[in-house]
Amino acid sequence: MLLELFVTSWIVGFSGAMMPGPLLTVTVSETTRRGAKAGPLIMVGHALLELVLVAALILGLKSFLNNQYFIITVSIVGGLFLIWMGYGMLRDVRQGNISLELKSGQEKVLMGPVLAGVLVSLSNPYWSIWWATIGLGYITSAWEYGIAGLFLFFAGHILADFTWYGVVAVAIARGKKVMSDRLYRGIIAVCGAFLIGLALTFIRDGIVRMTGLQ
Predict the structure, then answer these.
(1) CB-based contacts of 200: which residues, under 8 Å, 6+ apart?
(2) How far apart are the first and last CA of the chain?
(3) Three state DSSP letters for 64-112
(4) How far apart are CA 98 and CA 91, in angstroms?
(5) Domain definitions of the chain by residue range
(6) Which of 13, 79, 147, 206 has its Cα between 20 and 30 A from that of 199?
(7) What is the pLDDT of residues 126-166, one digit of tens each?
(8) Pairwise CA distance, residues 205 & 107, whole Å
């Protein structure tokens, strides 16, 4: 049933969205900088990327996503990208460049939240693996109902992302009313350190995979 497809894809979407990872970390960081609007904007970039990926999977991208050389490349390059983002967060904390009360034009923006949603998603090798396995299975089932099935699957999946990250963004933004600059910088520092730690894990996994191919 189409309704069942929508509901199950929504529930499974939550299982992925609620897992700690680079997207959650960047959402927390950007929300403290930009307010609650950052969460939905990051999800717009994430959703656009996933829409392209769904179309690519329908056209036969599965073998490419399962290719070990592709996974190794995403692991290492994505890890380096996350290290760059994490370092930027820690640097801003150390130099005192961030505050809850930034004046107009004071905030240094290296990328918008929509672009961040795209790049951070791409940097996570487990994101492509999820789509090449669980996601592809859902797409196969949804395709039996044609375009309507595919639409409801994607709508349920992305609704889970928007719901969860929207709740996170609102909670963080409201917390700014009782959050000091010191606590704010501490949160950014933790986010930066977490991204670097996660990046090192990605790079290690890529190296392990590379060694296994030799």
Answers:
(1) 79, 83
(2) 46
(3) HHCCHHHHHHHHHHHHHHHHHHHHHHHHHHHHCCCCCCCCCCCCCCCCC
(4) 10
(5) 20-98+112-124+167-213
(6) 13
(7) 787 777 767 777 777 787 788 898 899 999 999 989 998 88
(8) 35
Please name the residue that has the structure tokens 């044609």: 146
In this structure, the chain runs to a length of 214
List the structure tokens of 125.
């090798």
Question: Phi-psi region for residue 35, left (φ > 0), alpha (ψ -120 to 50) or beta?
Answer: left
Residue 82 identity: L
Predicted TM-score (pTM) of the model is 0.70
User: What does each C-alpha distance from 151 to 2, 67, 91, 148 come to in angstroms?
Assistant: 10, 27, 42, 5
